[in-house]
Design goal:
381 residues, alpha+beta, Beta-Lactamase, 3 domains, five-stranded antiparallel beta sheet, 10 strands, HAMP_dom, membrane, HAMP domain-containing protein, transmembrane helix, transmembrane
Amino acid sequence: MTKSTPSPLSLAAALNAFVVTFGVLFGVVTVYLVLDRARVFETQALTDAVQVRGRHAADDLARNLNDTWRMLAAVRDKASASDPDMIRGMLTAVVGDGLRVSWAGFAEPNGQVRMASDDLLLGADVSSRPWFQRGLSGSFAGDVHEAVLLNDLLGGTEADPFRFIDLAAPVIGADGTVDGVIGLHIDFSWAEALLSETAEELGLDLFLVNQAGELILSTDPSVSSSIELQAFRAAAAGVASTTVETWPDGIRYFATVIPEVQYDDLPSFGWRIVARIAPTSFDQAQAQLLRSVVIVLSAVGLLLLVMTAAFSRWFLQPFHDLAENARRMAEGSDEYPFESRRTSELARLSAALARLQSRETAGPSPGVTSAATTPLTPKEK
């Protein structure tokens, strides 16, 4: 039993295999490089995005608080020389609808409230309150705290008390002495709503941290207290930092620390903001990029296949035809040699095949005898 040998690979098949192999390798390498560069770009883009958006959120909060501070400063500048009724009207105007400022008042140096918005706490002793004590010596911004004297008056309950942040400043008389303190209680729920709205607009999660490193506001309900992460440690230390960490929900986030919430001459609350952005923020853009790359590679691959087929048809098919012609002639077929001048190599092969056929047809050259017809000499016999 004879062992069959595999047919040799044709030129067209070899070319097609080479083009397909090269195309696949080129596509795989291209996709890998594009995705690798996309990951680098995504990392830098997310870092820049969380830093810029986090700073924007901090500035927006500080700018809104500064507007309230400027209203307090306007009342303070007129408090010592103006009619009490006018000052009382200005304090009531500062409170307005009560959505931002819940109470505004003027306390004398002994701590007794002399004027207040809507006459709330009129005559009350606030000498032990931090806003009054600190306001006697200069501009003051107080961290969030539960309402004490105003909670019942404003409709708060023990289970759900009002929470305030404070602004205060001394009123300086014409002789340079302190005539009293102007104080504002700002509803902290206003700040919560402002930061929540800002976070949604910017595609962030925002966390407000005080000087003690305590989390006092979070736009993500699942994070209710400071956690052991580098971002919160940096916030507690008041150090600007950008991190990539895995949070308790198992997702790696980009986070940045804004070490101060400051605008113009607004007194410092001692707050720091941690802004967080999810890496999925750029998933849609990355998917679109990948789709674009695949479409381009597919188009290039299709064009390459069409050009390969045309090349094979135009340049390789004649070699196949010539080879088949030579095989048939070798098997005794009486046919004219295939001729093609498409390439110089093909033309030379065609001419050589024609010359071989001419010699075969013409027989032995004159003067040349075949070994089969030459008689043997006696010695050879």
